[in-house]
Amino acid sequence: MANVMVTGAMGRIGRELTDRLIEKGHNVFAVDTMFSSRADDELFHYTNCEITDEETITKIMNENAIDTVIHIAYTVDNDLGETIGDAEFKASKQSDKFIYSAAHAARVKNFILTSTTQIYGIQKGRDPIRETASEKGTSIYAEMKLNSEKMMLKAFKKSSTVPVIARLAPIYTPEFTDNLLEHVIDRKNNCSYVYGEGNYSFSFCSLYNYIEFIIGIVNIPKCRYEGIYNICDKDKVTAKEILHFGEESLRLGTPDVRTPPRLVSYNKAKGRNDYRYFDPDAALANWSYDNTKAQRISTFRWNLSNTAVHA
Hints:
The protein is α/β, with parallel strands linked by helices. The protein is 30% helix and 18% strand. It has nine helices and 14 strands.
């Protein structure tokens, strides 16, 4: 049994993760600003507060011998809206200023930061993007998460706390498909589309793969999993598969079949604030991430097919 602190615990990722941790018999110290329908019991302890509440967050760490902090607050697919601006960046930075030092002082064993694959931006070449690739993200969200990563690594440079950075690909669940659909919907023309036969592909992440990756670290807190990990499904998802999925569950209708663009471009201005904006002209770019390193911790057994029927 481990003592686990989860920030953003009532968000999309946080709720599923909290339930799974409790199923595994771990003590969960959940933090969020949203209402919790789960009553406190011997394994669940909820605190309603802002993640910027330094006094409260620090007190939880100091008084409960926390083994692992899972920092999901200020993550788009968890509790933020799709539009990210200066206010969100400022609030995230405010929590970064103390939460890492508080974890170090409390001798937390592991600290898992939920980051994003948006950090990479569009990379040259066709090989899957590894964790050593250069950071070329142009969105405010990518800059916000990269700033959190750098502050975390600096804070834990000479610490016994092991820093784990999870660069998470866009997630999906049986109920949440916004990230999938964004890659086959043309917002400008309000229609679904596909280039050619739709055999080009993207990396996404079933939420259950991310949860199992986290559980793998929590279950063995004394192991040193230090470093950066790409978190995504082992299998890429083609545009054709997304459309087929959409036809069955969301009634997308017949897509607009288009000629592939000669050059890959990206509207940086529109994607600057809008996390889910996806430029159709960038559909044939390299959106593939290598998660070989993360597979040493978890099997990544979930994909679009078995996630869709997950009960």
